[in-house]
Structure prediction request, 188 residues.
Amino acid sequence: MKNDDFEFLHQTQIRIPEDRIGVLIGKNGEVRRQIEKETGCRINISPDGVIIISGKDAIGFIKAQNVVKAIGKGFNPEIAMILLKDDLKMIEIIELPEYVDENAIKRVKGRIIGKDGIMRRNIEDTLDVKISIYGKSVAIIGNIENVDAAREAIFMLIDGAQHSRVLKFMEKRKREMKTRDLDWQPLY
Prediction:
């Protein structure tokens, strides 16, 4: 038998909170079907939140995992689907218990969100990312460079930096990224 006669299959399990299962399935199963259709993967969902993703295509398999993780971390499906449509988008997940004591998580989440959600919106708008603060984690979706800057801003907040300092940092990073983008523009 030749090597190309074998069918290679990627498979993984992801656990998501039970309250996110309905969001992953969607009305009449539409969200799950859309992920399966666009990635070529099969998604099996158990009632206790164990999601089994199987697929042949490695890129589709990774994209399906990322969308399931995004939905599991609190993103609505429309935002999570960005990960399917744009190859330059990625998801970064910061598990807060890895960086702060259990009794400080609520305070740190409050610092990241800010009064009336202003800090979170500032991070999203300034760095062109989407942020979900769900459970004990912070998830970021965006372009690699923007996600990196947002992660750095969030770690500044975790470490206790003043909001004004974080805002200045983000504006500086935004200018640097814009300047770098201009450097790559064709000169015609």
Remarks:
- The CA atoms of residues 149 and 173 lie 7 Å apart.
- The chain is about 50% helix and 20% strand.
